[in-house]
Design a protein that fits this description.
The structure holds 2 protein chains of 2 kinds.
Chain A: E1 2-6, E2 9-11, E3 18-19, E4 26-27, E5 33-35, H1 37-52, E6 59-66, H2 71-80, E7 84-89, H3 95-105, E8 113-117, H4 128-136, E9 140-150, E10 153-160, E11 163-169, E12 173-177, H5 190-196, E13 201-205, E14 213-219, E15 228-230, H6 235-245
Parallel strand pairs in A: 1-6, 1-8, 6-7, 7-13, 8-12, 9-12
Antiparallel strand pairs in A: 2-5, 3-4, 9-10, 10-11
Chain B: E1 3-8, H1 17-33, E2 36-42, H2 47-51, E3 60-64, H3 74-88, E4 92-95, H4 99-112, E5 115-120, E6 130-136, E7 141-147, E8 152-156, E9 171-174, E10 186-193, E11 205-209, H5 220-229, E12 232-235, H6 237-242, E13 262-266, H7 272-278, E14 283-288, H8 295-298, E15 301-304, H9 307-324
Parallel strand pairs in B: 1-2, 1-4, 2-3, 3-9, 4-8, 5-8, 11-12, 11-13, 13-14, 14-15
Antiparallel strand pairs in B: 6-7
Classes of the chains: A alpha/beta, B alpha/beta.
Chain lengths: 249, 325
Amino acid sequence: MKILVCVSNVPDTTTKIKLSGDMHSVDLANVQWIINPWDELALTRALELKEASEGKIEKVTVMLVGAKSAEPTMRKALAIGADDAVRVDAEPLDAYFVAGQIAGAIKDENYDLVFCGIESSDYNGSAMGSMLSEFMNIPSVSSVSKVEMDDDQIVVNREIAGGFEVVVPELPFVAIVQKGITKEPRIPSMRGIMMARKKPLKVVEASGLEALTEFVKYEPPQPKAACKMIDADNVAELVDLLHNEAKII
Amino acid sequence: MSKVLIYAENFDGKFKKANFEIVSYGAEIARQTGAEAIVLSIGNVPDEELKQLSVYGASRVLSFNDGRFDALENQAYASVIAQAVEKEGAEIVVFSNSNTSKALAPRVSVKLKAGMVFAATGLPKSIDPFMVPKKVFHGKAFADVVIKSPIKIICLSQNSFGITEDAKAVSIETFVAEIDDTVFKTRVTNVEKATGKILLNDAEIIVSGGRGMKGAENWKPLEDLADILGAATACSRPVSDEGWRPHSEHVGQTGKIVAPNLYFALGISGAIQHLAGVSSSKVIVAVNTDHEAPVFQEADYGIIGDVQKVLPQMVEAFRKFKSEN
């Protein structure tokens, strides 16, 4: 069995987002890049499954669509424990473009299970994994909060309003995962970092697919009015403000 | 006449506020573009419930019902939606930003080669080019996105447009789609669902506790406050990581993104990851011992104090208010 984990390279969550002078782009100089948090959870869970599978899962591959500058993020994924990595050499223009590129790059690879994070923390698209499953014409389960292996089956929990469903999909399928699938993302060990340098990182050319959307302009959020402070001994004032000023209760 | 098609997901045969909002939104786009607003529903929904959607401006409701659609099979559902868009010749397709929309809209996008914007925050700013505003970097910036394809898909951020009434005469029509048995490839073997609980994504008010609550055993007054206000309970990440509260209550970047009318951050310092999940709330009230806690940057009303002491007072004050109003 082979698992593919799709990762994206995103600015660290605590990064201050600076816009370019003309507001047409985000100024990415001096940004610290990380593996998208949901993808990192997905990778961690894929590795846990592999380790517990007694050899049934032979390989965990990470896949990224991006320029060469994204390779440190891929090396980090290898250091965490992925066996090999593939980069499609193209700027990730939009989710449709990325999903189409990945589908093209893996069409002869026969992955049994594909993991994608439910969202990317940069453009908050929430679309890539489901698009990939459609390009591949295979089933998908989204909002996955648990993944287990049961003999040769994969069993997942899908979060629904107020609870969850246990779902058994036919393989291959795409699992679009969220919080809960593993407790914490794995941190690379020193040995992992040394080994990552020697692990294969393949670069493939992009196909001629075109993006369907384009980000044309950015705006900073509206500045927020100062917080109105209320004395801790006068909670009644809070109730009054929420009722008469904010008119929210 | 051009058409706007709105996909309305039902919850056990019923619609929720989020549906009324996207119908209102789709109907407004239809008005501005001289188009017709059509709703598609999949599953077993009574006619009375379907008719309700006309209150928000839908003039036709297409209802697709098939015994094989009891559980969510993404490929099958997306195929019905894509067939409806094609049959009607709709140019704009509207979804909510729910978990189900995340599973379906991207598939419809690929089927129809239709560009999609997820978590749009308002009406299109222009029709040609078709430009939609959305939040990026979890609210640290906004962006205008142009959709270049002939068919456009918008998933609207909850509570970003509101509900507007515009009652129309409505026709309820049975929709027929061809769905092959071979796309049913996932099997639901069990369902666990809490009943009678207010769900985070439906809640108008959310009462949320953080590390300042000091332990699972201190949650009673927080739950009391939620009860009094008819609110849902939530928590910050350290709280769910510690196991004081279930993961399903975790609000923040990697947990749930919420947008209630009123959000109480109690003993939550407001790490950037937490604020990313709550910054769309209309009003935020924060209680924290540290006056420099980042949560006060985002809050509208703040109390500096120990939540253990302030919370019981809040319970009393809101109880009194509720008994008088």
